[in-house]
Amino acid sequence: MQTSGKIFWASFLTLIAAGIGFAVRGAVLAEWSSIFGFTQTELGTITGGGLVGMAFTIIGFSLFADRIGYKAILLGAFILHVSSAIVTLAATPVYHAAGKNATYWCLYVGMFMFSLANGMCESAINPLVATLYPKQKTHYLNILHAGWPGGLILGGLLAFCFVGEKCFITPLRWEIPMLFFLVPTLWYGIITIKEHFPVSEARAAGVKFSEMVAEFAAPVLLFLLFLHALVGYVELGTDSWITNIMGGYIRNSVLLLVYTSGLMFVLRFFAGPIVERINPLGLLFVSAVLACIGLYSMGSMLLAASGLGILVAATIYGLGKTFFWPTMLGVVGERFPKGGALVMGTMGGIGMASAGLLGGPGIGYTQDVNATAKLRELNPAVYEQVRAAEPNRFLFFPPVAGLDGKKVAELPKGSPEAEVVKQASDYGGARALKITAAIPATMAVGYLILLLYFRAIGGYKLVEIGPGGREVETSQYPSAKEAVYRDSRADQA
Question: How many helices and strands (H and E) does the chain possess?
Fold first, then answer.
């Protein structure tokens, strides 16, 4: 394997590690709730910690990624990944020694460290792959980001086999599946130590830092940053919750995440031929429409308790979310090459910040609001029995005292109280999905605006750094076959 292939594989493995950790964390949320007594909002904040830290490191390290190099960043990420595992595993002894609040912070810090490591990886691998394959950035970034659903598949299957009472093989303590992400972590660490990494496209062209910052004056880039914040909310925020929400309807709900991730994994390898026909913005518009329909339909099918309907809706949603993240990165890489790692890192950071600060907590809060309202309607006495001691807040919305997971778990199985709580919780999850569908609907409008804008100025074109560091538009968007040929010639050179 050539050096570029090994470096691409190491980059791919960082997303495998992130996906495994993300999927297993989603599967153990119910276990954390019953063991430690967390509400849905508290769980959402913990999962948010597993995302929001990425925003800080993606943006922070993107500021000087071109100077310190991609290798140093990935080595730092490796150290943080290992450290996050140590802190997270301390949760149970901390609970016995210091109680729920201390456990909450232990898990939050562990997840935050994990997200910091993921963010460092993201700040390096996106501009790194754009540097390795400068003529077909969208295509190869989609292939790179197939590592994410690949990790979700592996983590989901691990959870299916070993997490919870309904697991396929045997239930293990939650700490054991959480450690599996260390396998790809060690692998990418070894490759990073051994290989020589290239300098960035912008640095090779002699682009100054001030010129990178100047790219943010472009209104189109600012609009793309806004749209990517919505991408983070709907994609990562929803995926943080999908296993937990579906738990009341599907025996092994983690398989739904595995299924939608399988769609993403396969389809991301075919992004090149698709964008050759409809360009990246056309692909994003279609994706947003499908995601909106899929999410709203999934919430409706949950309320109707239709297993086949849930599967069809999940398929539509899986098709919709497939190309969001890597294609958005491809667009900014293709239209603003002088921005280098800074522009791509800011893009990823905005998406992660939105997912961690808004998506995870917001969807958890929405569940709490709707579930408590439904339980109060069905049986106020039971609500008082299982309500959390302290209300949770989200942004400027009214506080809500959600359902205490430990109190809910202590209700006798099959009892009228347990059944009415389940009904209310399921309703809260379904309503959260339907409400979240408004996010991709907004994105579809945004992508349509961009499509119309580029059509008005002559069409979407690839921008390259030409002689003297000037940005030059190509005459047309390159075909997949032509771009692969150019990249292969560049590798040989």
Answer: 25, 2
